[in-house]
Model the fold of this input.
Amino acid sequence: MDTRLVVLNRLLEALAVPVDVTSIDARKKMQKAVYLAQASGLKLGYAYGWYLLGPYSTGLARDYYALASTLGPDAPAGAELRDDVRAGLAPLREALNVPQGVQLSAPQWFELLSSVHFLRKVRGLTTPDANLVLLKEKPEVAPFADRAAEALGAAQLL
Amino acid sequence: MDFQFKRIADPVHGTIGLSELEVQLIHCGAYQRLRNIKQLGLAHLVFPAADYSRFAHSIGVCHVTGRLLSALQRHNLFKADEVDRETQRYRLAALCHDLGHYPFSHAMEVAVKNHYSGGLLKTDVKGDGRDSLHHEDVSELVIQKDPEISGVLKAGGFSANEIAAIFRRRDPPPFANLISSDLDADRIDYLLRTAHHTGLPYGHVDLDYIVSQMRLDSEGRLAVARQAMRSAEHLLLCRFFDYQQVSYHKTVAALELVLKDVLSGLLDLGVLDCSASSVEKMIESQSWQAFDDAQVLAKIGGLAAEAKAPKELRLKAQALLTRNVPKLCGEVEYFGHRSDFAKFSKEVESVKKEAAKWGAAAGLPSELMYVWDQKTTVTKAGTSVPFAADAEEEEDKLQQAVRVLGRDNKTSRPIAQCENSLMRAMSDQVLFGIRVYALIPPGQTKARAAVSQAIEESPLRVLAWK
Done:
């Protein structure tokens, strides 16, 4: 297995995000989790743009399809993530849990977290401006934007 | 703005006009470097004249972009006071889109990606814990950090960010599809130029007609007029045949496999350093300007002559220099459906596992056995994908799909959704292919037949081998 696929596999494993390409929600979780892992400082080399569901990388899509097709009972185990890298991902793993009182599914929560981060840190929008974009483009998740900002702050991503 | 400030003679497009700013840009050392990066990698070892450079191609892409913009401006693409600046911005993006290609382009990029894993793994012994850059990242770094190029752009009133946003499709500007899509200036120039230099007929795209029939739909998206749908389909088919006959030609593909291995070996031995930090330093110090095919070829020559180098690696380096092409021992090729991707990938994995045994049967080490595969579609998006745009990957593909204007001249649809398009019938079809090659050392003349026989006798029956 290519090294970059081994890294992706181990990263998703550390974030408790399954390698699953069979549904839109499953793919969305991988897209957003990897985006946030990169935002936390890991150099994974995926270029992200803004799409209908928030940050999205075509390069990552190619890689998770390749990864899914090579995983199986006799797939090579590959290498492990370094301990400090795993430890550094712990706050993000925590942030990916849907908080109490937030009536969103996990994929929606992932979308909201990554979208808030993208709008604030990549586009450089102020909180009110970012919230306006969310209200316009993602009205179903926008009401929880403050909770997402709070979770990103706790993970030192914002 | 005068886009005819200087004129260049080009065998594909005739006379190409350039603005003063464009001339200043291409005079920069990091731009001249593209003269020494071959567009088609090792294809010239099969098609002797197919050795044109990324320099010629990039100027061609700039020219085609300019033609498309001029045609669209008839439909008020830009506001009157923005026409010159926006035209220049898109043309600059076209000129700069390939600046970051490594020597030997894609072969090197694959080797680099696999070598540097960012130091995230416990067993990350290769790459010294460093990460690497995609060539588009490097293109952006060059226009940001090469002292000459960044200075020229700045003096011309352009930021690296606004140029890179187009070719990186980062928050894609409205007409980024001119540079990067199923029907873009990059592909058009590539097809025309490759046909010219290979002598193959698969790139005779009706550029004049396509340019004249480019439109904007009511949502501001690029589309071709209905009457140009066949020309657009012809371009997509040309691309399909070009890939099969040039890039995936059995000999070109075999040599590229060996090249990737040799480049990986040079990275492992520390002869090459393409980590992100090193590339950035090379760009800043301008040593990037000399990092081209010739420099790497000299290192391959050194490896071939180095007695201490691993035996198989040295053999591969020698194979590249002497054009000792790996022999095709088995091949499977069939059309299937997009939904067969996962099944096919498993077949490839099975073949990879068996290949070492087939080599062993002929006395060849596993390092000399190669498995190549392809899954080629005619269009990026198929007809059976969810067009509700709730899947981002389909959204991405659809954003780059060729669109055809409707009868109302306002709305448009992806070409694969037009009832009367050939692409509708073909876009879910995939050409799957697997090839097994063996690099035969000098003197082992019977090895090829032995590998082929081992494949024939193998219990693995993916499909009937050719």
In short: The mean pLDDT of chain B is 89.
